[in-house]
Amino acid sequence: MPEEKKEGELYYQAQSPDEGALVTAARNLGFVFRSRTPESITVVEMGRQVTYELLAVLDFNNVRKRMSVIVRSPDGKLTLYCKGADTIIYERLHPACNKLMEVTTGHLNEYAGDGLRTLVLAYKDLDEGYMDDWRRRHHEASTAMDGREERLDELYEEIEKDLMLLGATAVEDKLQDGVPQTIEQLAKADIKIWVLTGDKQETAENIGYSCNMLREEMKEIFVVAANTAEGVKEELQ
Question: What pTM was computed for the model?
Answer without folding.
Answer: 0.79
